[in-house]
Amino acid sequence: MKCCAECIGDGHLRREIIPEYSSEIGTCSYCGTENVQLVEPKDLRVQFELLTGIYTADDKGKTLVEWFKDDWAMFEHPQIDVAHAKELLAEILDDSEIVRERFSPSELSNSSTLDIWETFRDELKHKNRFFLKIDLNLDRLGELLGYLLHPDRIEPEWYRARIQKDNIPISPDKMGAAPKNLSTHGRANPAGIPYLYLASELKTAISEIRPHTGEIANVAIFSVVDGLKLVDLRHPRKTVSPFLLADARDILLLRGDIEFLERLGDELTRPVLPQAAAIDYIPSQYLCEFIKERGYHGVMYRSSVGDGINIALFDPASATVGAVTQHRVSRVSVEVD
């Protein structure tokens, strides 16, 4: 029986490791995915033994499959339930007993980075804006961002919406980022520093401008240039791969910082009230400014109002505007807790 990267759900395995062992294409014996690259489970043993080594035996802990699911978002394929995941992991490790045993992560994986960030963001918002007293480890932050580099080619077409005023359609040249003197606070940009915000879907782009029923949304298609380096903050636990690292201590440190990376993703996704935006956006603006300083071209993040993806491009010239279409908003849905 042969497995595939879809069974495990790790991007680095899919892109780099499995192709080293096999070029066979077929249907996976475990998850049933068709036309995928197949590999003998035992060929992945070295990588999984290294990962398993960061967990220690503990009768009150959880199984390795449970830890791998919780810590690294593995085995999330619909056809791979816990029983099948244990079967696959047992084949990989050539050990049918270890998958039944219980473990806990080594204490070396405990990290204070998230707590430091919470204190740091509070100082940014309410105490000191430019000369901060809290010491955030920027070298470590820069290293972690490298694990979140979007690995694939960016889709060429994206959408941006604006509300039409006075029954006059908006021309394509007015659909881009606002001029510097009119640029207000955004999730990623401080006032006066315009970034270009785009959405992966037309409906998401319209939802992002919070329209009212009956209003006309003008939506422009933008073509994004090739070769952009984007930090992907949508799902850090799925994006980060422990198999990128060849040292168990480095994997432990990465595990300890994943919750911090998820918190950074939340900074760009959480809903913010308009009257509080000037203050509440400051932490995400700081984060994006740091990402820009490290040489990336933008960030990718989940939409808080739609199912699509958003990107913020630090250089608005990184995308070219195309056709503009008009759409009447027929209904606005509201959900309450």
What features would you describe in this structure?
With 337 residues, the protein is α+β, with helices and mostly antiparallel strands. It has two domains: 5-105, no CATH class; 157-328, no CATH class. It is 34% helix and 17% strand. The protein has twelve helices and eleven strands. It has helices at residues 5-8, 11-21, 45-52, 64-72, 82-93, 113-126, 138-146, 202-208, 236-239, 248-269, 277-280, 282-293; strands at residues 25-26, 36-37, 55-62, 103-105, 157-163, 196-199, 216-224, 230-232, 298-302, 309-313, 319-328. The strands form four sheets. A four-stranded mixed sheet has the order 6-10-9-8. Helix 6 runs parallel beside helix 10 (248-269). The longest helix is centred in the C-terminal third of the chain and has 22 residues, at 248-269. The termini are far apart. The model has no long low-confidence stretch (mean pLDDT 94).
Q: Compute the CA-based radius of gyration.
A: 23 Å
Number of strands: 11
- % residues in beta strands: 15-25%
The share of residues in helices is 25-40%
Main sheet specs: 4 strands, mixed
Helix- and strand-based class? alpha+beta
**Spatial order of the strands forming the largest sheet:** 6-10-9-8
- What count of domains describes the coordinates? 2
Q: How far do the termini sit from each other?
A: 47 Å
Average pLDDT value? 94
- Pick out the low-confidence regions: none
SSE sequence, one letter per element: HHEEHEHHEHHEEHEEHHHHEEE
Question: Could you say which overall geometry the principal axes of the C-alpha atoms support?
Answer: globular
Secondary structure tally, helices:
12
